[in-house]
Amino acid sequence: MIKYFFVLPIVILLTGCPGKGREGAETGERQSIYIDNGRVCFTVNKKDILSRYVLSTNGSNYKELLVGDGVRLSYPDSCFSVSLEKGIIYGVSYTLNEKNYYYTFILDNDGNVLDLKGE
């Protein structure tokens, strides 16, 4: 038993961290979406294919506003009308052209979109 106690840490040190270099691979890269007057577009390029999307509020009042999985949408079907409130932090996760992306933002008191840059 004591032999395994010493062998296990050595094996872990030799193999390294299995997820190293892939941190955040599930959420993907940070990329903004188009937001204007209650209209949200995950892409405005007709050649792009949107296959998954979630737009939700963040924090203790988490609520999913838009959800789609296993879809195959291109512009203009990649745009949606949604009611966004000022002062609420929103998070977006989506798959575009088989690549995962995320974005976080808030609407200020004047209705301007402020990119939260991962904050």
From TrEMBL:
InterPro entries: T6SS_periplasmic_put (IPR054657)
PROSITE patterns for the chain: PROKAR_LIPOPROTEIN (PS51257)
Keywords tagged on the record: Lipoprotein
Superkingdom of origin organism: Bacteria
Name this polypeptide is given: T6SS immunity periplasmic lipoprotein
